[in-house]
Every structure is written in C-alpha cells, then in structure tokens.
Amino acid sequence: MIVLIPLTLFETSYDSVRELLSGNDLWPKDVAAGETVRFGGSNWQFVSLKPVEVLKTASSLPSSSVPLTARFLVEIGNPDLQNLWLGCSIRLVDPVGRLWQPASIPGMPSVAEGIKSCGAAAFSGAQSGERMVIEESFLVPREVATEVRPTLGVGSERPSYLRFARPL
Amino acid sequence: MKRRFGNIIALCLAVALLYGMQHSKPHYMDLTGPIPVYGKMHETVRARLFNVTVDDVAFARELTVEGFGTSKTLTTSGVWVVVSAQLEATTASNVVAQASWVGPTGLQYDSSDRTGYVPGLPPHAIDPGLPKPARFVFETLPDQVSGATLILSNQLFPRLDSQVRIAIDRFKKFNDGQPLILDSFDIRRPMAVSGN
Amino acid sequence: MLSGVLKLGSKAIAWLTAGLGTVAALAVAIILGAFEATPDQQYPQYPNNETVDAGQWRIKPLSARITSKRAFGVSPKDGQRGVIFEAELTNLTARSSKDYYGVFHLPSLIDAQAEKPMIYMERDASLLPDLHPGMTEKMAYIWLVPANTAPSDTVELLVTAKTYKARDNLTGSPGWYNDHTAGIVRIPASTEAEEQ
Fold this sequence. Notes:
Distance between the termini of chain C: 85 Å
Order of helices and strands of chain A: HEEEEHEEHEEE
Number of helices of chain A: 3
Order of helices and strands of chain C: HHEEEEEHEEEE
Helix content of chain A: 10-25%
Largest interface: B-C, 24 and 20 residues
Strand content of chain C: 35-45%
Shape of chain C: extended
Number of helices of chain C: 3
Strand content of chain A: 25-35%
Structural class of chain C: alpha+beta
Oligomer: heterotrimer
Largest sheet of chain A: 5 strands, mixed
Radius of gyration of chain A: 19 Å
C-alpha cells in the first residue's frame, strides 16, 4: 500500500503534469538588451518595440490604447521549425505581470515583404542559416506602453521562456 | 468456513459503504464544477480572468445584425434579449466565449448562434487594461424574463473556473412588471457607455 | 456436497470454473442476441400533424417531399434526390441544444447510402441552430439519397429518443442518455417533377 498509492498518484498525474509544463510559459530566462540567444534551435535577437502609426480613418481603437509592434531578428539554426516552434507565442508583459497577446489592429498598414508572424514563420520552410524578421502587433493601455517588454515561448523549450529587456 | 463468512460480510459492508457514499457525497461534476461569482447589474463583477459590468438589457421582437457587409433581420418565436456590457481582461488576454440567459426556473438559453459572425458579439477577445463594449444576444420566452440571471464564462463548460452570475432586475418595464418589448433592435446601435 | 467438490484436485476445479464461466458467457450472449434479433419490433406510429413527446423533443411531423431541385443550401447532384422532411420541434430539456440532429433517421437500408442530413430552421434558413427550451420551431431535414433508393410516395422515418437520468453513474451529472427508437413516422411524400 505504502508503495502502491504514491505510485498510482504519480502514474495518474504524470501526463497532466507533463502537459502543464509543456503547455505553459512558466520559468522566465531574462535576456539583456541587444543580446542574441539560442532558443528553439535558432538565434533570436529582440530589435525593437515601437508604436505603430495607424490610419487616421480608423477610429475604432479605444482612446486609452496604443498599438505597438515588436520586431525580432532570427537566424534559423535547426530548420525543423514546425516541431521546434510549435505553439510559438510572443506576448507583452508589464511590471506587474499582466500579459497581452497579439491583436489584429484595425487601420494598421500592411507589413513589408518578408516580415512574418511567428506562427507563419514556423510554416515558411525557412532553411538553416536564413535570416528573417519576425513581427507581432499588440494593443496595450497607454500608461504601460513604455514599460511592457516582450516574452517568447515555443513548444520545444517550455516550460522555460525568454523575457527580453527593452533596448535603451 | 468462518473466514469465508467474514469475507462475505466484508464484501457486503464495502458495497453498502460505497452505495451510501454514492448517494450522500457530492458528485464529481459538482466538485469540479464552475465556481460562481455573483453580482448585480451596473456594478463591476470580478471573475478570475475578466471583469464585467452589465449596463443595459433590452428586449425586442426583431433583431437586425450586420456581418461581412450584409445586414439581416432575424425574427423569433419568443423575444430577443440584447445585453450590453463592458468587458476587461484581468491578468492576461483571453476570450469570453460563453453566455447564457437563465430563466427563473433554471431553463438555460445559450447565446444565439443564428447571427453568424458579427463584430461586437461573442466570442469577445479582451485585453488587460482595455475595457471594451460587448454585446450578447439571446432568444427566450417572455415568461423567462422576470427573475432571470445572466451567466458568463471563458469556456463553454467551465470546470474549476469562475462563472459570473448576474441577477437581471433593472430593465424598462410596465407597471404590471411586464418588460417593454421593442419592435426591433439594431445591433449596430452604439452602446450607452456608463461610468467613463 | 460442498466438501465433495472441494476434494477434487485444484486443477479440476480450475477447469470446471473456466468451463462454467464460458457456458455462462455464451448463454448470456445468446439470450442478448436473441433479444436483439427479435424481428421488426413494432414501434408505435406517430400520427402526422399532431404533437407527441419523444424523449427530449416534442415533435409534430408536417410534410415530406422528394426533389431533384435545390432546397435551402442543398443541391442534389445527378442521380441524387433530396428527401425533405418538415417538422415542428420543441426542446423539452432545460438547455439550448442541437440534439435534434439525431432525432429522425431514414430506415437503415436507405440511410446507409444517404449523405448526412442538413437541417435548417425554416424561419431564416440558418443551418443547425441551437433550439432553446420551450421554443417551438419549424425545421427542415434534408437527406441526399441515390435516386433509385429514394422513397416514392411515403417517407418512413425512425424517431430516436433519449431518457432523462437525474445523474449518470460515472460523473453524477444530470442529462439525457440511452438512445432508443421510440416510434416511427410514415408521411405521404409529394414528388417534385424533374426539370429537363
């Protein structure tokens, strides 16, 4: 009994625990400004987080919000992106830990040729050694626009994730 | 022989105990069910992942909606309910997908899926710090209006997660308590923003 | 008697137990099979144009027609016919549901060759909308069948109903379980002439 009960508990909860660990960004690894980090088999560098100029005609944005675009420079290492970058999620986090997911922003100008979202990049068939620009756009409250910083999580690295410092 | 008799007794006891527990203890679905957060209209009700304020409830015979550039007018065998609210995420961006109108006797009217995709109707994607006007539409019967409760949650079947339950008591009504039912309600009508 | 049996070798007992077990299992299987195979159980025939309760739905069969033309969103291909059946449905459960999907079935011989039915609300031709508690709606079921198996003058449909259980044995949640054929609808069908 003493052996069997803990063993049963372990066995029944093992899958749930593994799913919890591999499905969530739990443990941050801080990345200094400008630093390039190997993550999910590729080299990631956080370039910028800037407000976006939206078309003036689009009045549907809440008045207290600011649209921001986060830009990363990635040099592909292991090209098996579909597996390594599975569930790729770039989010913004503020000093108290609130999280923003990418949003579709009405009136935003279309992105330049070759710039992809993380999810699209994972299925782009990029080869080893290729360099690409990855961008995601967000809508955040004005008061935290200068304080938020991006995080990056991919399936192959969870539960660890990257938390980038903003370039000065 | 004595030992065998003892075994039979033990077996019977076990059966009786399990049967008793099955009938007296809370069931699995009750134990792992939604965690209710009760609230009133016009006050901010706080769930785990979102805050909601219900500003207005209106009733109508017909509903006009617009999606993908075409507008359509929907009739009903009962009455349309249009709930106008403010939604805001608490700690992380998320989606409020499930809304139900629960009548005084517990009949549950899920938000209507006849509208198709229409901006401003669920599922509502919400972000922290950015309160957003949100509408919910239901079809129900006139006798399910008085004493109704609005139920909101992130997922269709919330388990071990908060479920907001807001008592619906303030709406335009006649002296006999019957609700004022408009001939038609246009969902494109801007929402009256309360508070800010 | 018992002691007599006990004197046999343990091997013999094992053989005997296994043998008895097999015989018992076979017997149960045969009896169950016999019940299953009872030819053409006489299901009650539901009258047309009258309401009747069939488990979780109150139904009222209205009309049937066979067509080669487009109806609602469904177009029969060459060599196909649309079997269109109209009925009034009322949700007798406590929650909005699309469970009417499995209520009417073509007899298995035709059903095996038919495409899955499409079901529309006649009010606005919305596909498979939720039907809400107590709210009666006229629905149209459309099956596409090979022309040579299409019924000619009478459409026969089996009505599947469920039984309410206050709690199911595994999770303790209330619900409607145990599909069974509750009755049969035989409704005269008009045939829409083929346009050449």
